[in-house]
Amino acid sequence: MEYIFRILRFDPKKDESPYFQDFSYESVEKTSVLEALMDIRNDQDGALSLRYSCREAICGSCAMVINGNFDLACRTNLDSLKSSLVVVEPLPNLDIQKDLVVDMDPFWEALQKIEPYLHGEKIESTEGHLVDDHDMDRIFQFVNCIMCGSCYAACPVASRDERYLGPAALAKLFRFVRDPRDIRPFANWSRVNTEAGVWGCDTIFACNEACPKDVRPADGIEALRRKMVVEKIKSLFRLGR
User: How confident is the model at residue 240 (pLDDT cuts 50, 70, 90)?
Assistant: First the structure.
């Protein structure tokens, strides 16, 4: 089947503004959007820039907008699309470095601010730290995050407020706060109790719809809000108010 790939192109070093360029592509077997883009780059335009790595929907590198939907190019097959016109755009809310490659620094900087690692007790390496399956089931969906940035790119708050940490970082924070092995104090993670944190979310669930792994970041943000309210009530009772 013959497809028309309409790809957004932009090289900030020489282009005044982004523009679309069409490429004709013929698929003779089951082909992913990523494989088609690689063929177009190899056979038609070697200057086309895109980001990818594992090709198995694990690394998240090839996240982009395909026919208006956020998805991973490596797992989106051409025969699953409803049109022979394939419109491919880079993730929004992030500056374009070249063509389909965006600057992920704001995403990674937000992630670093929530300290995305276990704050656990020191134990002997031979002991390990066993966790009940029931406890892990509660955070399993958030463990599935592959940090592709799709939720951040789809978030309307991130598009208008550069201070906002974004859904991926906040959901990742809940993943660690809810982990029974994590002992970070409330004062440590309550720093997101701000408009740039959990209260900045518009709760329109665009991040849930954009996530290719069904992590549902908005669920984590809502859970963080509830946990903060509970912790605040506990602190007031301890103070005798």
Answer: low
Instruction: Yes or no: say if 87 and 9 are a contact pair by the CB < 8 Å rule.
Output: no
pLDDT band of residue 121 (cuts 50, 70, 90) is: confident
The alpha-helical segments, DSSP class H, found in the chain are 33-43, 105-113, 133-143, 150-154, 156-160, 167-177, 186-189, 206-210, 217-238
Q: How many CB atoms lie within 10 A of CB 137?
A: 9
Question: Domain 105-238 belongs to what topology?
Answer: Fumarate Reductase Iron-sulfur Protein; Chain B, domain 2 (1.10.1060)
> If you write DSSP's letter for every residue of 113-163 in order, what string do you get?
HT--S-------TTT-----HHHHHHHHHHHT----SHHHHH-HHHHH-TT
Domain chopping of the chain, boundaries: 2-102, 105-238
